[in-house]
Amino acid sequence: MTDTEARTARLTWVKDADPRWDADRERVFATVPEGVFRAEARTPGERLSSDWWRVVDGERVVGYGWLDDVWGDAEILLAVEEPARGTGAGEFALARLEDEAAARGLNYVVNVVRDTHPDRATVTEWFLAHGFTRTEDGAMWKRVGDRTRGIGQHQDGRPGTGKAELPDEAHRARYAAARERAAARPYADDAPAGGSDLGPGHEESGGYVDPENHRF
To answer: Mean pLDDT, to the nearest integer, of 138-146?
Structure first.
């Protein structure tokens, strides 16, 4: 077993039943470079949108995965604290987000790498190496919903690394329209847990990759 495999074996994937802004999120997201996410102040205890999972190494939270259902797709986000980058924690989170989406019967996982990302080219290459395909708007797509297909699908029970099959133009347009509507809705603090309209920091998604070894 390699050092990376040994470290990954220690990681656990923990669902947040009531995701709120807390000290662990503050610590992890504070290590993400400026420009990866939209900067927006958060209040301790503030409720966050959609579905969140913690990546835990022993007793320490080292990262997060976020998933939002949009028109039969799953928009995803990953964040790993700086000391844990290059350890395989990003791959661990990505694989589990793909599994979560596939288990719901969703078609694709989608990640949008923002223009302001300081390592945009590296992030894009990382997603391409993990079976994603890029569209002109910078969105990275991977099909996970149909496990009978051999391209870009699960292999040996884990998400595959084959090249993804892109959704058609109409499908992508529906996703983009739904995403714009969600971003335009006001935030309500009394919304049901995990069900408000804003993503983490009301940012566009796009996780951070450590340039070394193309790992989160």
So the answer is: 87
